Structures are given as C-alpha cells and as structure tokens.
Write the structure tokens for this entry.
Amino acid sequence: MLRSFAAALAALAALAAPSATLAQQSAKHQVVFQVSDNDPAKWNLALNNARNVLADLGTDNVQIEIVAYGPGLGMLKADSKVAGRLAEALDNNVGLLACENTMQNTKTTRADMYAGISYVTAGVTHLMQRQREGWAYIRP
Amino acid sequence: MLRSFAAALAALAALAAPSATLAQQSAKHQVVFQVSDNDPAKWNLALNNARNVLADLGTDNVQIEIVAYGPGLGMLKADSKVAGRLAEALDNNVGLLACENTMQNTKTTRADMYAGISYVTAGVTHLMQRQREGWAYIRP
Amino acid sequence: MLRSFAAALAALAALAAPSATLAQQSAKHQVVFQVSDNDPAKWNLALNNARNVLADLGTDNVQIEIVAYGPGLGMLKADSKVAGRLAEALDNNVGLLACENTMQNTKTTRADMYAGISYVTAGVTHLMQRQREGWAYIRP
C-alpha cells in the first residue's frame, strides 16, 4: 500500500511538473525584448526599457534579454549607433543576442558584431522559447 | 499513515498552487495593449482594438488596459489628437495608464495629462506584470 | 481508506487540470504572428519568420498562424505585394487568417482576398485567445 501510494504521488508529481516549469515565474522576473526594426530610436527605446526595468525591480530580481533579428540586427553591430550603450547593458547582465539566421542572410560575420554579445540560431525561435518558459515579451 | 498521507497531499497541493494562479485565466479575458509609438494612427488602432474586443467578448467578460509609454505618452495627454475618444474608453472601463518614468524624463506633469486616466511607475514593468498574471499582450 | 485515497487523488488531479491545459505547450510549439502594419516589408518579415521557425523546429513540431488585421489586412488580399509567397505558406500549413471586422470596416469582401486563406471574426480577439491557449505571440 505504501509503495503504491508513493508511486501514485510520483505520478501526480510528474503530472504537475509542466506547470512547475511555468511556476518558476514566481521566483524572478524575466523579460525578453524584441528588436526587429532598422531604427536607432527603437534601439534606444529598448535599452531605456531594460534600464528602467532594472531600476524598478532591482538588478537581482530580473533577467533581461534583448534579441535583435531581421532589420534590427544593426543594433548589435560593432558600428551600431547605440554601440556606446551596449557595454553598459552587458555590465548590467542584460543579454544581447544576435540572430545567426539574419547574419547568414546578410553576409554578416561575428567580426562585424559588437564584441561581447551572444548568439542564437534563430531570433524568432528564441523569442518563442522564452515565452514558453514563462518570460514576458515586449516589442518596443 | 493518515497524517503522512495528508501531509503529502498538502505538499502536492502547494506544488500545484502556482499553476492555480495561471488558471485564473479561465474566468475573464484580460488584455493589455502597449502604445509606444508617437503615431496617432497607432493610438486610434489601439482604441479600435479595445472597442472590438469589448464588442466581441462583451463588456462584462473582459478587462482591458492601454499602457502608454516612451514616444507613445502623447496619446494620453490633454491635447492628444485622440482626446475625444478617451472619454468613451474610460466609460467602457478601459484602463488608460500613463508611464510616470516617461513623464519625469519629458518634464510632463499630471496637469498636462487627460483628466481621469491612471498612472503606473513604469509602463514596461506593468506590461511584464500583466503578462505574468496571465493577461494577453497586444502591441498594435 | 483506499476509496478516500482515490477520491483525494482525483480531487488533486482536478486541481492540476487547468495547468495541464497550459502544459499542452510541451507537445508542440505554437506561435501566432500579428500583422497590423500597411507595410510590405513587414509582411515579408512575417513570412520569413514563419519559414525560419519551420526550418528551425521542423514542420511537424510547430503550428503557425499569421493574423492580418487593421492596416495589415492588405497582406492577405488577392492583389497583395506578397501574394506570390502566400501559396508557399499555405503549402507549409501556415494558417493565414484575415480579420472580418477589418473587412467590414473597409468594405472588403472575400472576393477581394487571396483564395485559400481563412477568416476570424476579430483578429485581436483571436490573438488573445491563442495567447490564452499558450501560444507564443510575435509582432514583427
């Protein structure tokens, strides 16, 4: 009886597991920003948004990523008009992620990109994955 | 045995509790609209969207908020080009929320804003919080 | 005892059920794209995004919809500048959904639309519903 009871509990726990993944929302705020416009004003807005979130929630209480893809890739290039602000973002543990699909399609190499950023295979898929994991999604 | 059984059930219930929070989605539809463009066409689109949602789901079955921040703040100013439509939105219990961060950065005071709207400390953080609470997010 | 044990398990399972709905996320990736700009570059971007998601996750592992409403309705018209790409999207089981609210407001009939697409009463409500069902939301 005790053994079958334990087995039943384990089965129930397994049933509950997927929601437990979503429940991790409770611990720390998480937000992913999408940058897909070739518009430095939008790039600045995304960086302002990230800074405000850090100030409002506290750097220890939030995880932030900015994903640049499509026409937005230029934000994370070495010659970006907001390059001067990217170092500050990295210092604040804001993840800066460039889309490798977009890079391939536009003959852009890592040598063209701002040093210190990170990469994802496909920006859109990453945005989907983060939402699936319970992250908030903001498209400035 | 009965006591440990009850304890195990309580532990399992606690495990399941966070998902119960998400399950509140079932009761009422909830949607937050983001307005972050300095573009009256977008402001009208957001107001049209809200009106359509009310018509489609019924005013009693949905909770709607429009958050204006960054370059979108002008939507909720007293001299907004859509000021004539804001009263109707408020009458329909559509929450109109201005970002106080943006107001500070642009030397805007409540005296400059449309009477009757509400305020949030940071528009972006509010959008994150609503998504965390299970609200849908629409960026017109 | 065994009976009350089973009843308790059933009650717990019921408690866990709403999260089980959300847990359906685990099975297949699902994403809905919003097109609400009268901008063929955005239409192409949405179609590129869909194609990349299919390539990245595999056509059998993802469900994709593109919802066109408001100023974005033109994307799905018969004379759309991306009409040549819509057939490919349909072939790949990408759902193409036009907003009937927008059609009514702009005196557009199904005869004006690209053959083979589908329709939703209100684009915005559909986007809300999909998010409620656990779909990711991308606004290119």
Observations:
- Chain B is about 45% helix and 20% strand.
- The beta strands of chain B are 29-35, 62-68, 95-99, 118-120, 136-138.
